[in-house]
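Appendix C. Worked example: Cystinosin homolog
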Amino acid sequence: MDVVISEHDLNYDLDNQSQHLSNSSHDKVMHSAVIDDIASVIGWIYFTAWTLSFYPQVFSNWKRKSVVGLSFDFVLFNMIGFIAYCCFNVGLYWIPSVKAEYFKEHKDGVSPVQINDVFFAIHAVAITLVVIIQCFIYERGTQKISVWSKVLVGFIFLYVIITLILTLSGEMIWLDFLYNFSYIKLVVTCLKYTPQAYLNFKRKSTLGWSIGNVLLDFIGGWLSIIQMFLLAYNGDDWDSIFGNVTKFGLGLVTIVFDSLFIFQHYVLYRGKGTYSVLKDYEIAVTSEHPTGRGSSPYTAPLLKKEDLKISSPWLDKTVQSGH
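Step 2, the predicted output written as structure tokens:
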């Protein structure tokens, strides 16, 4: 005797199986709701720290009406990196087909991108654009983007175009294409701090580079890594750490370089205040602003010692001693 199964019964059976698998997956990826809540709170705290970290530099530039001391290579790499990071986060969080590709490779896994990651990336692009505008309208001395930075950015754009063509032709899936953006962000982050650290070393000062930015960045780096480990433990999905190698790498690189900047600011170049004459490069004074904006502190553009003609005995002594 033949057994006839109606389409309704078949769909009902498949739905039950699907629900069972969904429940099993959910049970597997959630050890503790408390830990999940803690990870979520930590995520928003580091999102806040990293978000606020942009503003001390913006405020410092505005107050000084100068971007002398801020590496233009750093600013360029910042923008390129955050655009790439924004593409990766938005794609992995909001595009259904990309999310499906991720969970196909990470069955029973958890998404490595949280909503705070998405909003952080979008905000970062916007506020970095503000810094770029400041670089155009404020005193910048002889600072400019280096040739090697321009060449590197050119290679990055070429790489993106090539991988996009491969993706459109079906040689690469969209998930892997977005992973390339995450790798670009990681590489750029590893590179972007180097010009700023070198500029601080060259000037023997951190004047113009906001320490508030560094401290908030440092806190955010630690918290982002802690969140990743909490999510991985709670979901028995340690692969998620390497599934979002960018987030893990960003936190690690940030901690290393911020430690260097803290050492430069509080140990190596401690005491280089607003009114110190910086060896060979610039002098910060208080007088009528050369652009006619009124009387306010500003940093004069990269002056050589021999170019300084100052009648004050104190400043003459400072210049001659090279301090």
